[in-house]
């Protein structure tokens, strides 16, 4: 893992609230939900009173998943606020919904890899959502606690000729029994680099790039060694996601696969036996 520990005042305040609440009354079990946002990504992590999003779903001329799906689901789950929004990389199927999410949850802080600080695409999405550059948490590789969970965030470097996908944040959430890893749209090239840096072993693996054949290599699946894989993709999408080769690799590794296009929202609850699927 590269880079120093970096905790901002916001992190300390946010996490302190979550930890403090746990002393006063029992907290519900941590929950990780992959919302069915069509061809895109949005995951919601709720622990110790904190609500953290990893991506916010797509927005395009046909649908604003932020307004139509993410906000209504959050409100239905009783989320009174969103504390933090990670934007994995500057693609519309991941961050297009930002404006609508922030319109309802204006107190949410936005966290972006510092590798995208000068990305014109990222800047335009932030500007469209009314987020000024100085209000963004520009991340270097970071570890922080959220309630009983450790959150590890790594920020792969992005060279001038590298695709934005390979700068996707690598995020691992873990307590003593449950763990999950999310990698945006990173390709196998980024997976190889990250696997060499740190342990990403996890119960639950969000399959990279919606099940594209250029992600989820055999080596990465072996490194994560997941029990369950989640594929977030749109029904009948034009990209052919998930690719048959990826499904074959997961089957070969004995991994249980769940798909948002076939099953809708996928919600996992932390238990002493690891993350367990709570509802479909
Ligand atoms: Zn994507």
Automatic annotation (TrEMBL):
Entries under SMART domains matching the protein: Lactamase_B
Q: Which Pfam families match?
A: Lactamase_B (PF00753)
Q: Which domain of life is it from?
A: Bacteria
* Residues making up the signal peptide according to the UniProt record: none
- Metallo-beta-lactamase domain span: 39-235
What this protein is called in its record is MBL fold metallo-hydrolase
Fetch the PANTHER family from UniProt. DNA INTERNALIZATION/COMPETENCE PROTEIN COMEC/REC2, RECOMBINATION PROTEIN 2
Q: Which SUPFAM superfamilies match?
A: Metallo-hydrolase/oxidoreductase
């Amino acid at each position: 893992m590269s880079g120093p520990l970096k905790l901002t005042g916001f992190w300390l305040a946010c996490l302190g609230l979550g930890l403090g609440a746990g002393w006063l009354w029992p907290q519900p079990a941590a929950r990780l939900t992959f919302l069915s946002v069509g061809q895109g990504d949005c995951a919601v992590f709720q622990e110790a009173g904190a609500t953290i999003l990893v991506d916010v779903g797509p927005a395009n001329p046909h649908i604003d998943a932020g307004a139509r799906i993410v906000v209504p689901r959050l409100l239905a789950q009783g989320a009174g606020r969103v504390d933090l929004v990670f934007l994995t990389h500057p693609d519309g199927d991941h961050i297009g919904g930002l404006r609508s999410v922030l319109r309802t949850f204006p107190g949410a802080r936005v966290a972006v890899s510092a590798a995208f600080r000068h990305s014109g695409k990222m800047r335009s999405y932030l500007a469209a959502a009314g987020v000024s550059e100085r209000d963004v948490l520009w991340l270097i590789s970071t570890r922080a606690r959220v309630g009983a969970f450790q959150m590890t965030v790594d920020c792969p470097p992005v060279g001038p000729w590298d695709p934005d996908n390979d700068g996707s944040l690598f995020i691992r959430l873990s307590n003593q029994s449950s763990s999950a890893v999310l990698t945006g749209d990173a390709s196998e090239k980024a997976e190889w680099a990250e696997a060499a840096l740190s342990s990403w072993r996890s119960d639950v693996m969000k399959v990279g790039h919606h099940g594209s054949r250029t992600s989820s290599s055999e080596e990465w699946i072996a490194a994560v060694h997941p029990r369950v894989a989640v594929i977030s993709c749109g029904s009948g999408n034009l990209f052919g996601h998930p690719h048959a080769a990826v499904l074959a690799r997961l089957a070969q590794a004995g991994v249980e696969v769940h798909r948002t296009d076939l099953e809708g929202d996928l919600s996992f609850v932390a238990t002493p036996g690891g993350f367990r699927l709570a509802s479909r």
